[in-house]
Amino acid sequence: CEEYEHKIINIIASAKFLQNFIDTCLSDAGFLHILTQVQSKISIDQLHEKVSAVLITAEKRLNFDSLPVMQQNLHRMSQVQVQLRNVYRQLDIVTKKINKQANNPLNIDVIKALIGVLGKSITALGLDENGVIILYNNSQYESVKSIINKCINLKQIIEKPILQLAYLVSFGKECTQHPGLITALEEIHSNKSISDIKNDVKTKSRIIKNSLSFGNQGVMLCQLEQIKIVQKDLISINKNFQNIINTIEKGKITYIKSTTLESLLLLFGSICAVEFSPKDELFIDFNSQNEKVLDILSFCQKLQPKIETLIQEGEGKIKEAQECLKNPLLMKQCQRQQRRKSVQITTAIVASILILISPGVWFGWKRFSQEQVRWNAQTLMSSIGDVTQAKDINEIRLMRDKIKQAIASVEIIPNSFASAYLAAHQDISKFRVQLDPVEKRLQIEEDTAAKFESTKQLAMDAAILVQNPPHPATVWNEASNKWQEAITILESIPEDSFVSVDAKTKLEQYRNNYAVISARLSSEIQASDSIENAKKLSWEAVKITQNPPHSSTTWKQASNKLEQAIKLLGTMPKNSPLYAQEQQRLQEYKANYTTINKRLIIEDNAVLKFKQAQKLAKQVERIAQNMPYTLAGLQDALAKIKQATNVLSSIPSGTTVSVQASEVVQIYSRNYNTIYNRFQAINTCSSPQSSDCFDANYSFYLESIDSSLSSL
Questions:
Q1: At a CB cut-off of 8 Å and minimum separation 6, what does 96 contact?
Q2: Tens digits of per-residue pLDDT, 652-682?
Q3: First vs last Cα of the chain: how many Å apart?
Q4: Strands 140-143 and 254-255, sheet pairing
Q5: pLDDT tens-digit profile of 280-300?
Q6: CA distance linking residue 76 with residue 62, whole number of Å
Q7: CB–CB of 674/630 below 8 Å?
Q8: Which helix or strand (DSSP H or E) is residue 31 part of?
Q9: Segment 454-463 mean pLDDT
Q10: Could you state, in order of their start, the residue ranges of all structural domains in the chain?
Q11: DSSP E strands: which ranges in 232-318?
């Protein structure tokens, strides 16, 4: 019993909900209009199959064969993207209308959205034997929750492919606008791998790290020229690395820009295509091999600090060589230092041998080695400049790494007999004092850079949202919020940060974009408000004109309301998604406006005719009061009554005076007979002035004509 009681309670609750829901649907004119207009017919499972087929055949590879081939490739991807985006937009409406707090997610907005997606495949709404609300597709049925879950699942499935296709189309169009890039893609045929670039950098590193030949000016000149060539190559590689690091974006998807492609071409050579793998990872096809974009980014991030260090060392070597070539005394001094260093190395070897001979020598040599470590650490620290004068974030990273390297090298000095531990401990304290402002500045710059990168993702998301307009106000509002969020973040970036210049440029662009999107949003909101106000005015006009007849004042009020409604719909911009569907409503309002104005004219004419009859009635009354009667006077009265009767008879039914007009016509007919009889009686007299013509001198009674008209 308890089991069945619980089951019955569920069924009753669902039935009540369903009854209320049906009543809501029947009272919603918009819902009934949707039912008459919908044409499509596809079940949620069929939609799944259709989308799966589209995704299987969808190209997620942008080929760089030639410009015509590339344009055809972009056209196909754009068509698929539009198909998927339309499905996504309809599914998004369904999921946003769900009442997630309620036990039952169904409401009239959800049904409208589901009909927008599935069309006439939804044939009925009902309950199953357990009281679960179900949707019918002819004889087949499925619970509302199940259908909604499938909609949510399908939306999640197509979200990433839409972003990928949107990116590839946008990226492809960006590339086609750079003829030089297209030409380079077609003409460059060389190939380099990541290993090739690593080996190339190692070779250049050996050239820079080789000792200068201070004893031979000719050899030094050759070394100088060789270092300059290597330095130029390293600067070019570093520039390309920096551009790759700055332009590869990581968000919901990883993507590159046309400028990234230029740097990749210069580094790796021929590029065949850009594509997304089945695991949704972005790859670049270098003809001979594929490289994951994130692997390329990681490679650049790891190798760039080493290249920057080599560039600094190269600059030092070039400067040292040039100064020595100009100053022979300096060259001799450098030669002596070089020899001294060589002696130190030799001494170290000898000391190693002596360690085996004498413990005292061992402790002396150990202290000497520790002092050498301290001296090297101090030399390294002296090469570190002021953090406030750093040119970019990588220079600060290099400062931090050098300080940490210096600290790490000195920390290994043990606290033992005759060691340099105390002096090393003091060095570490000094080094850490220098490290603190460097790390703080680096943290600020990294946080700022991360903020700056997040604004690019927001901008990308906002741009993708508003592709292929028109869109409803909800889409424009979401895009507007993303632009506003990006602007707020950019405004918070400090003036002295490395990205502040780029941030200001982006800020100006984003503000312009935000203004455009906000204008569209305002336009859509205004259009929606105009529609709602027009509906309200139309409903008020319909309401006050129910159950006619009505006075001219009422018809005039209704006419004014419809006129305002027509003006509101007439101001709707043509680029609004609501424009097309509201044109039918506008035509309906115009037709109703014409009908009401006709009724207003009819009512005005009817009242005017009634007043005209009233005027004739008063003239007849004056004739009846003027004795003795004459044949001419009575003939005039008969003519006026006849005229008044004709005027009243021409008043159409359905006016405020039509019923009264019918009653007065009957009174006029009786009064006409009364006057006519008196006219006949007087006509038999020899003369109305004769004493025997009593009918001319006695008044006759007319039914109250004026009282019948007094209401006017």
A1: 474
A2: 988 988 888 888 888 888 888 988 888 888 8
A3: 74
A4: unpaired
A5: 788 888 776 788 888 888 888
A6: 11
A7: no
A8: helix 29-37
A9: 89
A10: 1-177, 193-326, 612-708
A11: 249-250, 254-255, 273-276, 282-285, 290-292
